[in-house]
Amino acid sequence: MSQKLNAALLGASGYTGADLMRLGVRHPNIDFTVLTANTHAGKPVEEVFPHLGGVDLPQLQRADDINWSELDVVFCGLPHATSQQIVSEIVKSTDRPKIVDMSADFRLRDPAQYKAWYGNDHVDPQLQDIAAYGLTEHNRDAIRSKRIIACPGCYPTATLIALLPLAKASLINVEALIIDAKSGVTGAGRGLKQNTLAAEAGESLSPYAVGAHRHTAELEQEIGAVSGKEIKVNFTPHLIPMSRGELITAHLELESGKSVNDLRAVLESNYQDEPFVRVLSEGKMPSTGMVRGSNTCVINVFEDRIPGRAIVIAALDNLVKGSAGQALQNFNVAFGIEETTGLSQIPMFP
Ligand SMILES: NC(=O)C1=CN([C@@H]2O[C@H](COP(=O)(O)OP(=O)(O)OC[C@H]3O[C@@H](n4cnc5c(N)ncnc54)[C@H](OP(=O)(O)O)[C@@H]3O)[C@@H](O)[C@H]2O)C=CC1
Ligand SMILES: CC(=O)N[C@@H](CCC(=O)OP(=O)(O)O)C(=O)O
User: Fold this and answer.
1) Which of 101, 183, 194 to mutate to test the pocket of ligand 2 (most atoms within 8 A of CB)?
2) Can you name the residues that pair with 316 across neighbouring β-strands?
3) Which of the ligands is closest to the CA of residue 80?
4) For ligand 2, is residue 153 a contact (CB within 6 Å)?
5) Does residue 1 carry a pLDDT above 90?
6) Same structural domain for residues 103 and 209?
7) What residues form the catalytic site here (predicted)?
8) Which of 68, 113, 152, 271 allows an S-S link to 277, with CB 3.0 to 4.6 Å?
């Protein structure tokens, strides 16, 4: 495709919005004509994000008077609950733009599950029928055909890339999954929160939402779907004093007669042609430092000393593969654009 598509980015003054502009502004098929914000509406982007100074972008505006039918794509980096209201309005007003949503509003297919985990009734549960779960490597057909693409949460992106092939191949006991996860503070968004202040998050590693994190529902939905079982996952996230990056450690029980070599073989064969998933060679440790600023997810599989068990570790950048990068990857798939377009950055080091 050579033409530019008319794009809006809602929530452009947030962290995912910032990275979507950083990556999208050099994408040959994206023209950002509308950028929205809430408290920052009316400001030039440069005033909110000095690192985007000198880049040709429209001023931040409220989402009030947008002609949705002039747009080809709407990227959405809004808080959950806010996102569903505006997406419902867009879908009712026109059948034109595709919507690539980074919030949690269209990830859970069952409205009762949505209410149970997020606390509010979904304003338009019918929209689930036109939404695809946007884990790119595992759902391209739906991403191509559906109107709304619900990008997965950052933790589920890493966890599902690592575990879905193993669950599909019946190599692991999906009823005994233990996931330990760690994220940099940008995962919590740009709004002021006490626990992400440098004085409180710095020099401290803290678990949160223990036994109750919302991403548990996505993991149970997606791993349950490929294994045909209703499962319960043990998932514990931690906040780490760094800006971006995320790492998950999955403690696994092998199915009888299966080995770590079987796990490695399945991960390698699943991902050998994937541009953004790297299964590392034996013994190499995944780390957030290996993927910083890139759309890559790195994985490796390790023996556990305990017979019949294995450990799988995956790392990604929460603002790229965990949100804005995956959103762009999904946009490419949805519009039939070469999937790596705009996403070929090498990770930053150090
Ligand atoms: N951060 C991450 O690593 C990830 C985030 N996500 C999800 O992506 C979405 C965006 O996250 P993130 O960028 O971190 O969030 P931020 O808090 O950094 O940004 C939120 C954006 O939404 C705008 N906004 C907030 N409230 C309203 C409202 N009531 N009406 C209109 N606009 C509003 C803000 O505007 P203003 O600044 O002007 O107030 C800002 O532009 C969230 O749903 C988040 O859960 C998903 C994966 C990873
Ligand atoms: C460190 C931190 O707070 N991370 C966020 C996850 C970011 C994300 O993926 O958020 P959504 O599912 O809300 O889109 C959290 O745990 O809620």
Assistant:
1) 183
2) 246
3) 1
4) yes
5) no
6) no
7) 154
8) 271
Shared domain for 265 and 167, answered yes or no, is yes
What CATH number does residue 95 fall under?
3.40.50.720
Q: What is the number of domains present in the chain?
A: 2
pLDDT of residue 238: 98
Q: Which domain holds residue 132?
A: 5-152+321-334
- Name the nearest CA neighbour of 283 among 271, 301, 310: 301
Rounded to whole angstroms, the Cα distance separating 17 from 130 reads 24
Q: What are phi and psi of 196, to 5 degrees?
A: -105, 5
pLDDT given at position 187:
97
pLDDT at 192: 85
Nearest CA to ligand 1 atom 20: 14
Residues 135 and 162 both lie in one domain: no
| Cβ atoms within 10 Å of 157's Cβ, excluding its own | 28
pLDDT at 2: 82
Catalytic residue flag (residue 297)? no
- Could you tell me the distance, in angstroms and rounded to a whole number, from the CA of residue 135 to the centre of ligand 1? 20
Q: What is the mean pLDDT of residues 241-252?
A: 98
The DSSP symbol for 152 reads P
Q: Are residues 218 and 78 in the same domain?
A: no
Taking each helix axis from N to C end, the angle separating 154-168 and 260-271, rounded to the nearest 10 degrees, works out to 110
- Nearest-atom number in ligand 1 for the CA of 18 is 13
What's the gap in Å between 61 CA and the centre of ligand 2?
A: 25
Which residue's C-alpha comes closest to atom 15 of ligand 1?
189
